[in-house]
């Protein structure tokens, strides 16, 4: 059986755990604990190690979804999860521009650990003060469209929205795999 490992990362409160819970076919394994730092201002519980969910596609393919903690102090978990991943998605709450600089640091860290395809998922786009896709991309350092990863709007509470986002990530991974194969053979 082929297993594809996808990492869901981003700042605290962007929707990582909810994203995985929305599509997992198994009860999600989580390490949520009572928030004791500034995270408590956003939510009561937070991930301290990782979340794990699974999607089965027939008898020969499964997606394993790993959600990272949002706090940088747990970046040793980011390192462990990203090194074996095939691709990742960075979730960003579009209505909290104060976190965009931190999201950019997450991208830089992940890209230093593994050169794998990634996409950006914008959450909370329906909230007051939400930034546009273009402005978030620029804030994350993607000034030029041709260097920009795919950016999608996603509602982590809606299974269909999450499924569509995962399909975008898998398609992006497949396209990159084809490019790599043709550059090696050409």
UniProtKB/TrEMBL annotation:
UniProt-listed InterPro entries: Gliding_Motility_GTPase (IPR052705), Gpn (IPR004130), P-loop_NTPase (IPR027417)
The protein here is known as GTPase
UniProt similarity note: Belongs to the GPN-loop GTPase family.
Q: Which UniProt keywords apply?
A: GTP-binding, Hydrolase, Nucleotide-binding
Coiled coil ranges (UniProt) are none
Q: Which GO terms describe its molecular function?
A: GTP binding; hydrolase activity
What organism is recorded for this protein?
Mastigocoleus testarum BC008
User: Among its keywords, does the record have rRNA-binding?
Assistant: no
